[in-house]
Amino acid sequence: MNTQKVPLPLISSINKVHQKQEMVGLHLLRIFGAFSVVVIHSSVPITFGFGKVSDHFWFMSNALESFFRSGVGIFLLLSGVLLIPKITNRGEFLKKRLMRVVPPFLFWSFAYCYQARAHFPLTPIEIFQKIVHGASTHLWFVQTIILLYIGCTFFGPLISKLEKRHLLFLLIISEMLLLASLYYEEYPWLNEVRTLWAGFVFMLMGFYFSKLKIGLRKRRIYGLMMFFGGTISTFVGTYLYSKIEGSFQDYFYSILSPIILFKTSGTYLFFTSISLKEGLLLNFIRGIAKTTFGVYLIHPLILDAVLFKLGISYQLVNPLVGVTVTSMLCFAISSLFFYFLSKFRYSNYLM
Questions:
Q1: What is the pTM of this model?
Q2: Are 199 and 148 in contact (CB under 8 A)?
Q3: Which long-range contacts (CB under 8 A, 24 or more apart) does 113-120 make?
Q4: 3-state SS record for the chain
Q5: How far apart are CA 267 and CA 164, in angstroms?
Q6: Which whole-number Å values give the CA distances from 302 to 198, 294, 335, 341, 347, in the listed order?
Q7: Predicted confidence pLDDT, tens digits, the chain (351 residues)
Q8: Packing angle between helix 8-47 and helix 319-341, nearest 10 degrees?
């Protein structure tokens, strides 16, 4: 029996390769997550028009949304992967995360308020209220992530010390509590708590995955199975639920749905199985990945103030073509804008 030990330098180099490989996957996940959000917002007018638009068009839009409905979940899961293990100094962590998120949030909140003033004059008090409640609908995510960062500051160090089996138990209990809360729809305040709790579950799942050692082949196979299984379930579930209720129901699209958690987990596994050699392509991917938070913040402005005025929207040819072309152009313009902006000093306060 060969009991020869593997040299420590070799183990160290293998670990570095794995870490580098996973970082490539995380860059790709950021890009896919940001693009997914753009697709979703491009197709919303059709999907929410269930019963008012043709069935053919609605099914196209539902297919696109079901495929890409994991964008926000990806960002939450990535926060768990990257941030929970790093909370050693609570004060430094909170300061760094808030400075990363709050200034861009405030700037773009004012930008959306300014855009709204063109249609509805706003008083200073109304502007403040819009910022607190979300100057644009997509900014709910930024508000949620700020609260989750504050929560992680206190509970992150405790969670990071848990063994995998205890972490899995906490994850299962947390998801069960989230599902149980759905029976109490009569309490409006619970909606906010429920969304926050769902975000915590996604972060917890991300941290759990960061501790798992899964081979690349298994990651790829399991990831694809979970992704497409989740996509089909979302498509069918949304259609049937909407059909039964007689109006559009978006539960299966939301982060409250365990199917989206399942699908997002599959997305993570698949992308972290991808490896690329150093070169132009990898540098290009890194560059785009750095702009993804900015893309998330600005994309509704590009969709409404630029593309829609040029006649580019979901109405171009058919939803499949219209949403795809609109989303690609919106993502490209937004990413390019922040790429050039990043060359200037203090640009980090905007992206």
A1: 0.89
A2: yes
A3: 115/301, 115/304, 115/305
A4: CCCCCCCHHHHHHHHHHHHHHHHHHHHHHHHHHHHHHHHHHHHHHHHCCCCCCCHHHHHHHHHHHHHHCCHHHHHHHHHHHHCHHHCCCHHHHHHHHHHHHHHHHHHHHHHHHHHHHCCCCCCHHHHHHHHHHCCCHHHHHHHHHHHHHHHHHHHHHHHHCCCHHHHHHHHHHHHHHHHHHCCCCCCCHHHHHHHHHHHHHHHHHHHHHHHCCCCHHHHHHHHHHHHHHHHHHHHHHHHHHHHHHCCCCCHHHCCCCHHHHHHHHHHHHHHCCCCCCCCHHHHHHHHHHCCHHHHHHHHHHHHHHHHHHHCCCCCCCCHHHHHHHHHHHHHHHHHHHHHHHCCCCCHHHCC
A5: 21
A6: 29, 12, 11, 16, 19
A7: 444 454 544 334 334 444 555 588 999 999 999 999 999 999 998 999 898 888 889 999 999 999 999 999 999 999 999 999 888 888 888 999 999 999 999 999 988 888 777 566 777 777 777 777 777 889 999 999 999 999 999 898 899 899 999 999 999 999 999 999 888 876 777 888 999 999 999 999 999 998 888 888 999 999 999 999 999 999 999 999 999 999 999 999 999 999 999 999 999 999 999 988 888 889 999 999 999 999 999 999 999 889 998 989 888 878 888 999 999 999 999 999 999 998 888 888 888
A8: 130
